[in-house]
Design brief:
The structure is a single chain. By secondary structure, the protein is mainly α. It folds into two domains: about 140 residues, no CATH class; about 240 residues, Intergrase catalytic core (hpI Integrase, Chain A), CATH 1.10.443.10. It contains 15 helices and three strands. The chain has a three-stranded antiparallel sheet. A hairpin with a 5-residue loop joins strand 1 and strand 2. Helix 1 runs antiparallel to helix 2. The protein is globular. About 35% of the residues are buried.
Length: about 425
């Protein structure tokens, strides 16, 4: 990549949008791509305020907000630090350079967290070790980043802040068939993960509570095929029961998920057994009540209204004995991710103890994330010859109309096949 222009005046270091202070010369107040005519629809007078106005629309959608903020933040910082120019002065050629930069953010010491250790570790946004990247982006992640930035630029043009979208000239690729899913755990590796969970210590109240939570979380992600954000953003009150045409009572979980869409997930007998087991470990009733606000996954030792987990086992005991009162808040998506990654790391460590022959399988587990469990669920259902249309509906890859009698009957068949053929078998 060419060196920054020699007339660059101000040197900046990457910092989160929350704390970023931009010199007036680079704030975009007089960016070369600023709209000059017409009436602006937003009050922003600089690039940072314009980005904040764009993000403000997503304040109630935490997952989308985090993703969009990350991409806007990275581009803004790259424009300031690497080019020494405002975001509102970026050209089409600059955007192409940025696209190449995403595949290898250099210098790594400036852009990548823990660059000397190979990257990968995330730090809180207020931590001085925070960096915009955790390593090079995959081709799929680069494409996703550019899609989000195209949305940003298009919105700023529509809002009357920018004169044009520098990404609008990009070549539109012909959509390709989705690649075969490879990020999943084949049955043998999945068994290693379950064995690791089964071997977790349960000798103290807190250890037992952690085991119960891990077992329930993996059950939920695998049997329900939930996304990690869905596990953190839905409640136990969304379980409900209804009678099918033959008079059988079947439990369902109404999941509010990606794209603000709802889908019905079959709550199989095995899933409901695990839910009962998990709730009773907290001294709660076996089954949730309608509209119950209890999070699907409970923090350990968290009292109502607190914001952080406590470490004292006595608090856990108190929580078990006092289920009444306001429900505690849900675990964050990052906290749920950490729980899953820790289990995968533990399973990988157990494999490595068996010798070099298991190293490749351990490496694969260390790459796995919570989303792999969703892919694993879909792959295993397909392997067990669950109708692919039912797998699609279980995972929410297409919307359902619950008002249609035909689809209602199809729902019951989907529940029966999922219940019979998709099991966790602890």
């Amino acid at each position: 990549m060419p060196n920054p222009p020699p007339n660059r005046v101000v040197a900046l270091l990457p910092a989160p949008l929350d704390t970023l202070v931009i010199p007036a010369a680079l704030d975009g107040g007089s960016g070369t791509n600023r709209a000059t005519g017409g009436h602006a629809q937003i009050a922003a007078v600089n690039d940072l305020d314009a980005i904040r106005a764009w993000l403000a629309r997503l304040a109630d959608k935490q997952t989308t907000f985090d993703s969009y903020r990350k991409e806007a933040e990275r581009l803004l910082l790259w424009s300031l630090v690497q080019l020494g120019k405002p975001l509102s002065s970026l050209t089409h050629e600059d955007c192409l350079r940025y696209q190449h930069f995403l595949a290898d953010p250099q210098p790594a010491s400036t852009w990548v967290a823990n660059a000397g250790a190979g990257g990968g570790r995330k730090h809180p946004r207020g931590d001085p070790r925070w960096r915009p990247f955790y390593g090079p982006l995959s081709p799929a992640s680069v494409r996703q980043a550019m899609v989000i930035l195209n949305v940003l630029f298009s919105w700023l043009v529509q809002a009357g802040y920018l004169a044009g979208n520098p990404l609008a000239l990009s070549r539109q690729r012909t959509p390709k068939a989705a690649p075969r899913i490879t990020r999943y755990l084949e049955p043998g590796l999945w068994q290693e993960v379950k064995d690791t969970i089964a071997s977790m210590p349960q000798d103290t109240a807190r250890a037992r509570a952690h085991y119960d939570r891990v077992r329930w979380l993996f059950t939920l992600l695998y049997l329900g095929g939930l996304r990690i954000a869905e596990a953190g953003g839905n409640t136990m009150g969304q379980f409900f029961v209804r009678r099918d045409a033959g008079g059988t009572m079947r439990w369902w979980l109404n999941v509010h998920g990606k794209g603000d869409k709802d889908r019905l997930v079959p709550a199989t007998r095995e899933l409901m057994t695990e839910l009962t087991r998990y709730r009773q470990s907290f001294g709660m009733t076996a089954l949730p009540s309608p509209n119950e606000a209890t999070p699907l996954v409970l923090p350990i030792g968290k009292t109502a209204g607190s914001t952080a987990e406590r470490t004292a086992g006595s608090t856990m005991e108190s929580a078990r004995k006092k289920p009444e009162g306001p429900s505690p808040g849900p675990l964050t998506r990052a906290a749920l991710h950490t729980i899953v990654k820790d289990v995968f790391a533990g399973a990988a460590g157990r494999l490595r103890e068996r010798g070099e022959a298991f190293a490749a399988r351990a490496d694969l587990l260390e790459q796995a994330s919570a989303h792999w469990l969703r892919h694993t669920a879909g792959s295993h259902m397909a392997d067990q010859q669950v109708d692919l249309r039912l797998v699609r509906d279980n995972l929410g890859h297409a919307s359902l109309s619950t008002t249609s009698l035909y689809l209602h009957v199809d729902d019951d068949r989907r529940h029966q096949e999922t219940d019979e053929k998709h099991r966790i078998d602890w």
